[in-house]
Amino acid sequence: QPSTEISSPPVAEGDQRRVTIESLGDQGDGIAKVDRGYVLIVPETTPGEEVFIEVENVRENVGFATKIDAPE
């Protein structure tokens, strides 16, 4: 039987982490890749930018996050 760990996203809603924006998506939103190549869409970011994000919406293949202020 397949392990649920492989198929479940490596992030959860509410997670906060630092990511690097790698490219732009079709809508102009930043795209960051995290564990196992999982894609996070982060609006209002640019490629090469390192940002602190909070994950807001997790789907099987992609997650949506917003840029937040890094903790002190």
Q: What is the averaged pLDDT score? A: 91
Give me the count of strands.
Answer: 6
Structural class: mainly beta
Low-confidence stretches: none
Number of helices, where a helix is a run of at least 4 consecutive DSSP H or I residues: 1
Largest sheet: 6 strands, mixed
| Broad shape | globular
Helix content: under 10%
Output the helix-strand order. Answer: HEEEEEE
Q: What topology, given as strand order, has the largest sheet?
A: 1-5-6-4-3-2
Head-to-tail CA distance between termini: 44 Å
Q: Using the CA coordinates, give the radius of gyration.
A: 12 Å
Q: Please state roughly what percent of the residues sit in beta strands, choosing from under 5%, 5-15%, 15-25%, 25-35%, 35-45% or over 45%.
A: 35-45%
What does this structure look like?
The chain is mostly beta strands and 72 residues long. It has 1 helix and 6 strands; from the N terminus they run αββββββ. It has one helix at residues 4-7; strands at 16-20, 23-24, 30-33, 39-42, 50-58, 62-68. The longest helix is centred in the N-terminal third of the chain and has 4 residues, at 4-7.
Give the secondary structure arrangement, pairings included:
Layout: H1 4-7, E1 16-20, E2 23-24, E3 30-33, E4 39-42, E5 50-58, E6 62-68
Parallel strand pairs: 4-6
Antiparallel strand pairs: 1-5, 2-3, 3-4, 5-6
